[in-house]
Structures are given as C-alpha cells and as structure tokens.
Amino acid sequence: MSVATTTLREDLSIAARPVAAAAMAGALTGAVIGGIGGRLAMFVLRLTSDSALRGLKTDDDFTIGVFSGETLFLVIVTAFLGVIGGLVYLAVRGWLPERARPWLFGALTGIVGGAQVIRPDGIDFTLLDPLWLAVAMFVLLPTAYGVAVSLLAERFLARDSAFSRSKAWIAGLVLLLPLGFFGLVGLAVIAAIIAVVLLGRAAPEMASLWTSPPAAWIGRAGLATAAIVWGAALVRDVVEVL
Q1: Distance between CA 222 and CA 23 in Å, rounded?
Q2: Nearest 5 degrees, angle CA 212-CA 155-CA 205?
Q3: pLDDT of 32 higher than 80
Q4: pLDDT, tens digit, for every residue of 140-191?
Q5: Distance, CA of 112 to CA of 146 (rounded, Å)
Q6: How close are the terminal C-alpha atoms of the chain, in Å?
Q7: Structural domain boundaries in the chain
Q8: Are 120 and 241 within 8 A, CB to CB?
Q9: In b/e form, how buried is each residue of 152-183, taking b as 16+ CB within 10 angstroms?
Q10: Average pLDDT in the 46-58 region?
Q11: How high is the pLDDT of residue 221?
Q12: How far apart are CA 201 and CA 79, in angstroms?
C-alpha cells in the first residue's frame, strides 16, 4: 500500500490559506478598531477634557483633536500590528474552547493591550478628563479587537470562505504584502512559517504535538499565566491613574 506524499510547494500552499486568512482578519480589525476606533476615542476625550489640550501631543506623538496624516499613519500601524495579533490567534486558537474563543481571546488582548497603553505618568492618563472614561475606552478597544479578530478569522477560515477556495498564490500575496512592511520582523515571521511547514514534512509526529492534548493544556496554562501577570500590571496602573 503506497502512502500519498505532497511536495514542498503543495504544503506551503496549504499553509498559506489559513495564515493569510488570519493575517487579513487581523489587519482589518486592527485598522478599524485600533486605528479609527482609537482616534475616535481620543476625539471623544478631547470633547470631554479642557479645550486647552487641543493641539498637544499624546504619549504616542499624535495631536489631540486633530485628524491629519497622523491618523492615516495610526491606521496603517494598527493594521500591521493587527496582522501579528491575527497570527497569534491562529497559533493559539486550538487551545481555546471553540464557543468561548472570541471572549477568551478578547479578554487576553484587553488585558495585555490595556497594560501596554495605560501609562500613569503619560499625558493621556493625567490631563485627559474624565480619567475613568480614558481608562475604560483604552481597555475596551483592545478587548473589542480580540473578539472581532476571532470572529472574523473563524469566518475566513471556514471551508466555504473565499480564502479556503482561493488560489494559493493569492493567499500568499495577501500574507506577504503586510508582512513586508515589518522589515526584519516580517521576514522573521515568514521564516517561522516556512520552518513550521518544513518541520511538518520532516517530522510529522513532532508537528502534531502542537495540537495534542498535553500541548493544549500547557498552552492554556501559559495563556493563563500571561493573563495573570499582565492583569496585575494593568490593575496596578489603573489604580495609580484613578
């Protein structure tokens, strides 16, 4: 009885579709929620804060109350960061219960994103008013991103989706274009994807360990640990801000 084998090109083609689907989901949700949503949040806070703050630079060097080329730059940056988040989701989705994936991933991105954004010594969380609204919005935005990227990625990963039925070179182009803007980081991500495919060809039993029950439990423990560590940092910063 012969065993069917696939070529490296076929294996890369198979891998390109889900990776491109997750990357596109991350880019879209990152741009809309992180970029546009972030600027709208700052606009709302400008309206509720002292008018003297208009024109000041935020902690990330964006001008308060002004929609300009900086806004477009923010959308582009958050789209690229969203790609990374989408790839992270693809890597860990098998560890999360299917029905709870959006909410668990949203909670994780909310905790980590909030801890990264909220800075007790920055202008965003000292001069803006009310501070509770600033804190709430900049925790809710990354949470909403996590929920949205999960829901959209699952739609793109479905068997009847355009990504699943697309030609491999199209999926590869969808992946390569945004990662190309990351320079060395993007090249490292692409190299890691190729390395995983090569590992799967050379040692299928090792590649399957990622989705095995022991690996799933270790992965869940790692995610829980990350949530606890970043959650403690977030709570500390929020208490200091408020």
Answers
A1: 23
A2: 20
A3: yes
A4: 999 999 999 999 999 988 877 776 666 655 555 566 666 666 666 666 666 6
A5: 11
A6: 69
A7: 8-241
A8: yes
A9: bbbebbeeeeebeebebeebbebbeebbeebe
A10: 66
A11: 94
A12: 32
Of 105, 89, 102, 107, the closest CA to residue 22 belongs to: 89
SS (H, E, C) the chain: CCCCCCCHHHHHHHHHHHHHHHHHHHHHHHHHHHHHHHHHHHHHHHHHCCHHHCCCECCCCCECCCCCHHHHHHHHHHHHHHHHHHHHHHHHHHHCCHHHHHHHHHHHHHHHHHHHHCCCCCHHHCCCCCHHHHHHHHHHHHHHHHHHHHHHHHHHHCCCCHHHHCCHHHHHHHHHHHHHCCCHHHHHHHHHHHHHHHHHHHCHHHHHHHHCHHHHHHHHHHHHHHHHHHHHHHHHHHHHHC
* Beta-ladder partners of 57: 63
Is residue 29 scored above 80 in pLDDT? yes
CB-based contacts of 18: which residues, under 8 Å, 6+ apart? 90, 157, 163
Residue type, 14: I
> What does the alpha-carbon distance between residue 150 and residue 25 come to, in Å, rounded to a whole number?
8
CA angle (161, 162, 163) in 5-degree steps: 90
Q: Name the CA dihedral angle for 57, 54, 77, 32, rounded to a multiple of 10 degrees.
A: 160
Bridge partners, 63 (sequence order): 57
Q: Give pLDDT tens digits for 123-141.
A: 666 666 788 888 888 899 9
- Specify the higher pLDDT residue, 74 or 232: 232
Q: If phi over 0 gives left and psi between -120 and 50 gives alpha, with beta otherwise, what is residue 43? A: alpha
Q: Which two tokens stand for residue 39?
A: 């600027």
Phi, psi values for residue 57, rounded to 5°: -85, 140
